Amino acid sequence: MQTRTRDVVVVGGGHNGLACAAYLAQGGLDVLVFERRHIPGGAAATEQPWPGHQVSSASYVVSLMPEKIVSELNLRSYGYKTTILDPDYYVPYADGTSLTLWGDTTRTAREIARYSKADADAYVEFDSYLARLGQLVHSLLYVIPPNLAATELPKWMALGGKLRNWSGRDLNEVVRLFTVSAADFLDEWFENERIKGALATQAIIGAWTGPMSPGSAYVLLHHWMGSIDGHEGAWGWVHGGMGSVGRVMADSARASGAEIHLDAGVAGVEVSGGRATGVVLEDGSVIPARRVVSNAHPVTTLRELVGDSYLDDDVVRDLKRFRSRSGSVKVNMSLSELPKPAAWDGPMPGDPHTGILSISPSIEYLERAWDDAKYGRISAHPYVEMVFPTVFEPDLAPEGRHIALCFTQFGPYDLAEGTWDTERATYANNVIQALDEVAPGFDKSVEDVEVLTPKDIEDRYGLIGGNIFQGDMSPEQMFCFRPIPGYADYHSPVKNLYMCGSGTHPGGGVMGVPGLNAAKVLLSDVKRGRLLRREDRNQRAGV
After folding, report:
1. Please, are residues 289 and 278 in contact by the beta-carbon 8 Å criterion?
2. Residue 513 phi, psi dihedral angles, 5° rounding
3. Contacts of 71 (CB under 8 A, 6+ apart)
4. What is the rounded CA–CA span in Å between residue 532 and residue 538?
5. Could you tell me whether strands 275-281 and 46-47 are parallel, antiparallel, or unpaired per DSSP bridges?
6. Sign (positive or negative) of CA dihedral 507, 508, 511, 516
7. pLDDT per residue over 341-378, tens digit each?
8. Angle at which helices 193-204 and 363-374 cross, to 10°
9. Which residue, 505, 502, 417, 423, is CA-closest to 456?
10. Tens digits of per-residue pLDDT, 174-198?
11. What is the model's pTM?
């Protein structure tokens, strides 16, 4: 490998690292990306756990990827294609009934009216309420968070301009969502336990928290910000599986001139004179660079690739306090046939298979699943949401077979008793039984099972604690506090080292926005540096 000094080396070819690389290359910089795995995309991966099955092993749906990035990186020309999951959620119950939540507010209200006319009326206002707050918070996605320092006053003033459309009531409601529990929040709107259970699922996805925990309501809003092809709040299936996200991002970056190396892990960031000067690969190669951007977890970036000896004590202390916990367990299955809920008497496939099938009968059910996990046990009755990609793309599995992608909660990283080696099969059986209760005979259709525990997710994708957001999405770890105070603007404590992963603002989800924002900051720094050097040359020349 040539060892010329690169403008930028990007550590990690996850989707944010690739988005950052693409924007930097568009900006005219010489960009080199190193990814330790054999495929790009990080946790947005399509893999083959069983012959002939193309499985989205970790992330499984999209919603937060903005049209701005899709169009600016020209992703559709490289094959990026999504299909809206419709309905949003199909929730079957053990008594043979079901509740369906649609992307259409009026249609959902009619469905809710079967259980409660009052809740149906409330849902229309509820949807409008969250849509407005989602739009307001969405307007902050591309803001570079100011740090808490007097020198940042101009940035705070610019932020004030962004907030000019916010009323005092808007600010109050957003703050409330950061502090109130999802259970309390939903109690303010609805009376029926099934309605609240169906809506509470989005408050716990990927979070180490239950629906009765303070602050859980914000996660619900985070998921309300998304859209697919202009449909607000929708979820989508990416054709070719989630690995297509990494592939098209990589193609876009290469088309703009970036160079990407797979199977090339970075062992450390070179630091000299307080500045990042390049990286050291796992094979010992040293790659010099004027700037380094890390898509790795913030703790991995600073404490492992840089090292505590280069960091102030306050920074090390803040990094030690950065929470990155998870109870998410991904369970992937090969099926001989699609499940048929007892509540469903329509065509196969139908509504239970073209959207997200969810096992969430009540808030109490979700809280009990969380109770197990917080005491170190696997959930006896886990939350399960399920997507069937072969309904949209039969070729993802052998003829006559189906794939089920189950995002489940909760399984703790550390078990109070036993190990995941012994509990893995038990957890998979708990998931299968939860589905068999609403779709009798489902257990007989299961042919292969892959269980990715939080530890597996950490080891395979570098997500510490198995946290899919690269860190808890809690108030003290958001916006100007993400990842740690003083470094929310994509810079790091080491000069010329930047961070661009989900551990930075605006957080997790397959969106690419942290990568875009980090690229914007770096390109601005490069431009400013060139201007300063030009001024210095002019001064020396007496101009």
Report:
1. yes
2. -65, -40
3. none
4. 10
5. unpaired
6. positive
7. 999 999 999 999 999 999 999 999 999 999 999 999 99
8. 40
9. 423
10. 888 888 999 999 999 999 999 999 9
11. 0.94
Residue with tokens 């202390």: 317
> Are the CB atoms for 56 and 46 separated by under 8 Å?
yes
Q: Is the dihedral of CA 97, 103, 107, 109 positive or negative?
A: positive
Q: Across the strands, what pairs with 91? A: 99
Interhelix angle 117-138/216-224, rounded to 10 degrees, is 80
The radius of gyration of the chain's CA atoms, rounded to the nearest angstrom, is 23
Go through the chain and tell me how many residues it has.
543
CA nearest 19: which of 467, 510, 526?
A: 510
Residue 100 token pair: 């369906």
Residue 69 sits at the vertex; the CA angle it makes with 66 and 75, to the nearest 5 degrees, is 110
**The two structure tokens encoding residue 123:** 């849902």
Q: What is the per-residue DSSP string for 147-196?
A: PSSGGGHHHHHHHHHHGGG--HHHHHHHHHHHHS-HHHHHHTT---HHHH
Task: State the amino acid at position 94 in one-letter form.
Answer: A
At 234-281, the pLDDT tens digits run 789 999 999 999 999 999 999 999 999 999 999 999 999 999 999 999
Question: How far apart, in whole angstroms, are the C-alpha atoms of residue 163 and residue 374?
Answer: 38
